[in-house]
Description:
This protein is α/β, with parallel strands linked by helices.
Amino acid sequence: xxxxxxxxxxxxxxxxxxxxxxxxxxxxxxxxxxxxxxxxxxxxxxxxxxxxxxxxxxxxxxxxxxxxxxxxxxxxxxxxxxxxxxxxxxxxxxxxxxxxxxxxxxxxxxxxxxxxxxxxxxxxxxxxxxxxxxxxxxxxxxxxxxxxxxxxxxxxxxxxxxxxxxxxxxxxxxxxxxxxxxxxxxxxxxxxxxxxxxxxxxxxxxxxxxxxxxxxxxxxxxxxxxxxxxxxxxxxxxxxxxxxxxxxxxxxxxxxxxxxxxxxxxxxxxxxxxxxxxxxxxxxxxxxxxxxxxxxxxxxxxxxxxxxxxxxxxxxxxxxxxxxxxxxxxxxxxxxxxxxxxxxxxxxxxxxxxxxxxxxxxxxxxxxxxxxxxxxxxxxxxxxxxxxxxxxxxxxxxxxxxxxxxxxxxxxxxxxxxxxxxxxxxxxxxxxxxxxxxxxxxxxxxxxxxxxxxxxxxxxxxxxxxxxxxxxxxxxxxxxxxxxxxxxxxxxxxxxxxxxxxxxxxxxxxx
Length: 511
């Protein structure tokens, strides 16, 4: 596998923060004719956290209910000990109007991952009151793009707060502060924790039921935040929604002596091969059977074979190769040549090579053509390419035209935040034990794990493995719930999955 963070939400380009000067209308006061000299107005480089937020109201129908909501768009400061600001953090919050008892009204705090991603994906993909209009199967329609009312939002069941970490969206460090100070596992959790505390305080939501919803690296972030919020501020949560993410990078990142990625990716390979009709007839006719066989084999014969390595007898090796070919749709010789371990990039390149197609990383249902059959790896991810344009265009339009938030600074959908400082040394970064600690200290903390069957970035079996192996008393394991979807990483772009997601979240948010 190529040396990148497997769950990075497509941080494709490093974004430089532009510096601009203030400009205003001025009048020519020379002896020239007394005509005004008009100069273009340029908005502030960094939105000031002291500026009042913009507020609009709107009404839409969600799950058969008429929901009137207030959308608040603004900035809050991250404060140093001397009360000066070190950064301004951008947020968009939606609160249902007519709710008089905030102690009973849930608040769900949402963010994506990257690290380096804004919260646009969860926001305009599935949870917010407006969503990007894609084809029903999640593929890209022809541009130009548009937004539609999201009748599958969860705003009828919970208020929503979307946060953009520093360097993403409009969030920026203040003058003389460096963005790099926020680029790390601990600083990221601490800064998000500071923001959440201040937002909850200013909006009088300390007594509301509170949930975190993180996607991709946001799952890693949410697990760390759950412990940090209650240990630092005494802010206890009611639940976590862990969507298409990772708790332990050992399950995703290959390395010498680490066979876990091969094991946890296999069911996703099987589900993908099934979608593209590459499995033998008995498996092709029954996805549930195929997945059950794949998981049993992955955690049994396959895991043992990998453990034995070169000591595996030739006859047994041939059997393992044949079973892997059966479960992945790949040629047996290709599996043999890759020493029984096929990484996701090679799988994406080879599964449909006979058709000249590559398959998506974030959603392996989606195919594309890169015109290069000489490589063992795809040149791009067609599933990411199908979403970047629509989400970027609609978010930029939505901010100014509907939310009325004006600023000339580029809204950073994806920002360069490298190098990212993980706390781990000589090991794989992990927050599984921090999640276990949070659940142990708060026995009412419930966790909903969501994942797409065709996610080749962060397969659901990765988090399932982590939760099967972290320290948690058996009595508290009833607080863990799993739901799987037909598509991939951003399952909400697939309309049937979006409908299921709304129901799953609505049930989870009920007391």
